[in-house]
């Protein structure tokens, strides 16, 4: 949870994205720094998921730029995109495990997409290590249907960690979980960041999660960044709109 340097890993400049005549992002400028957890807040439908989908080019932005490392995404080719995606792990809301595969196979599949040659032993070691990091080494041969919601989130995180990404994007990581499990997942996000020194963008409505993980917060309103600051700056802000999120 420390931000030692201000190196920029993702630089978003004046990003715009519409669907038909619905303007969703209307000039977002925002940076993700090295070694930080950046929380993106905004009410439902404000474009938070659209923003992170643009970052991994699951959606194409209309105007502006997104630079990941040295790579600008606007006219990126397929090869460049593969390289960018290797740097970014994306943890979807649903965890999106493959239901017909065991936990081991889910993680192994993620590794196979790296296009690197690993020995059987290396693959096994990486999978065991990733599962240990999320506290579920015994679930290796389980099917997703045998896991609880919280366990699925953890396995989703293990699958993201197994490829060792520099950046992790979390889309509502605690949604649908009870308060205790939500808290465990929030702490796991911090433990992950401390151990692997990666940087994360976390979309969440869960204020307890925000309070646990946020190094910085960016609030989106009407397609623009309404405020960026520390948790303390948000909590102490007198603005009624901001207060409505933190009461
Ligand atoms: N592929 C799409 N085609 C058309 N409209 C879309 C598409 N994806 C998102 N939208 C619209 O963009 C707006 C923002 O959606 P988005 O999912 O980013 O909101 P959000 O801030 O993540 O909301 P929530 O907190 O409820 O998840 C919504 O009005 C949504 O209907």
From TrEMBL:
<dbReference type="Pfam" id="PF00005">
    <property type="entry name" value="ABC_tran"/>
</dbReference>
<dbReference type="InterPro" id="IPR017871">
    <property type="entry name" value="ABC_transporter-like_CS"/>
</dbReference>
<dbReference type="GO" id="GO:0005524">
    <property type="term" value="F:ATP binding"/>
</dbReference>
<dbReference type="InterPro" id="IPR027417">
    <property type="entry name" value="P-loop_NTPase"/>
</dbReference>
<keyword id="KW-0813">Transport</keyword>
<protein>
    <submittedName>
        <fullName>ATP-binding cassette domain-containing protein</fullName>
    </submittedName>
</protein>
<keyword id="KW-0547">Nucleotide-binding</keyword>
<keyword id="KW-0067">ATP-binding</keyword>
<feature type="domain" description="ABC transporter">
    <location>
        <begin position="10"/>
        <end position="247"/>
    </location>
</feature>
<dbReference type="InterPro" id="IPR003593">
    <property type="entry name" value="AAA+_ATPase"/>
</dbReference>
<dbReference type="InterPro" id="IPR003439">
    <property type="entry name" value="ABC_transporter-like_ATP-bd"/>
</dbReference>
<dbReference type="GO" id="GO:0016887">
    <property type="term" value="F:ATP hydrolysis activity"/>
</dbReference>
């Amino acid at each position: 949870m420390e931000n030692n340097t201000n190196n920029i890993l993702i630089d978003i400049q004046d990003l715009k994205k519409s669907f038909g005549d619905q303007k969703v992002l209307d000039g977002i400028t925002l940076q993700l720094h090295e070694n930080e957890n950046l929380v993106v807040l905004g009410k439902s439908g404000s474009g938070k998921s659209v923003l992170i989908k643009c970052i991994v080019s699951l959606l194409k932005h209309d105007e502006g730029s997104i630079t990941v490392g040295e790579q600008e995404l606007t006219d990126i080719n397929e090869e460049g995109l593969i390289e960018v995606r290797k740097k970014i792990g994306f943890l979807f809301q649903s965890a999106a495990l493959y239901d017909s595969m065991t936990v081991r196979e889910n993680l192994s599949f993620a590794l196979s997409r790296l296009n690197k040659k690993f020995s059987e032993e290396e693959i096994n070691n990486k999978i065991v290590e990733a599962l240990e990091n999320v506290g579920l080494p015994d679930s290796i041969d389980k099917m997703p249907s045998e896991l609880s919601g919280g366990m699925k989130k953890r396995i989703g995180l293990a699958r993201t960690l197994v490829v060792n990404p520099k950046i992790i994007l979390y889309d509502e990581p605690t949604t649908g979980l009870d308060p205790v499990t939500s808290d465990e997942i929030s702490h796991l996000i911090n433990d992950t960041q401390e151990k692997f020194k990666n940087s994360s963008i976390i979309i969440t409505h869960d204020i307890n999660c925000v309070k646990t993980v946020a190094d910085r917060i960016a609030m989106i309103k009407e397609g623009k960044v309404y405020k960026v600051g520390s948790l303390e700056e948000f909590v102490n802000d007198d603005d009624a709109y901001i207060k409505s999120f933190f009461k």
